[in-house]
């Protein structure tokens, strides 16, 4: 399984494909599979990777990594289209080594993201 996912270029490395299988992010015909699972032509493979889900139907089995045009012929891509860019939620990024945000910084981040500050304790 992991060799096929890597060979058709659904993941960059075989170790990423293997980790995805072990982590339960790969399903074949609706069943979670291990890296050593044997696939056949006609199987539906669902791979959750980098925040999106790829849904492909196996049309040909290969065991060696090949060029991108040849790899694209080995499966039929039924993945849902990615969400439009404006629907993606922005993620606040802090500089590496900056430590935890101060109380003032945390409040400004919450205000920027539109979150309400924690309610005050009632007396």
UniProtKB/TrEMBL annotation:
Positions of region (Disordered): 75-123
PROSITE patterns: S4
Start and end residues of each RNA-binding S4 domain: 1-61
Keywords: DNA-binding, RNA-binding
Stored InterPro entries: HSP15 (IPR025708), S4_RNA-bd (IPR002942), S4_RNA-bd_sf (IPR036986)
Pfam families: S4
Basic and acidic residues bias (residue ranges): 84-98, 107-123
Transmembrane segments: none
Family: Belongs to the HSP15 family.
Protein name, as recorded: RNA-binding S4 domain-containing protein
Organism: Nonomuraea monospora
